[in-house]
């Protein structure tokens, strides 16, 4: 019964309830799953965070200049602009 959404990293479809909802607020990308924040949302598997960074999925989805708050990887923040594959 849950709506189907596409993960921005792996592009696989999944039930909305199994994905994290992300929204850009100012220059930050935050977890907007609960409470459900208004705004342009995107969906991501919790396990796909690193893949999303590697594929620049956040920048592609939300545009440049945003920072992903450390919700997934031990509290680190990630500059979306940075390229983890740069070296
Ligand atoms: Zn995924």
UniProtKB/TrEMBL annotation:
Q: What range(s) does the YlxR domain occupy? A: 5-63
Give the superkingdom in one word. Bacteria
InterPro entries associated with the record: YlxR, YlxR-like_sf, YlxR_dom
Pfam families for the chain: YlxR
Report the PANTHER family cross-referenced here. BLL0784 PROTEIN, YLXR DOMAIN-CONTAINING PROTEIN
For this entry, the protein name equals YlxR domain-containing protein
- Give the organism's phylogenetic lineage: Bacteria, Bacillati, Actinomycetota, Actinomycetes, Propionibacteriales
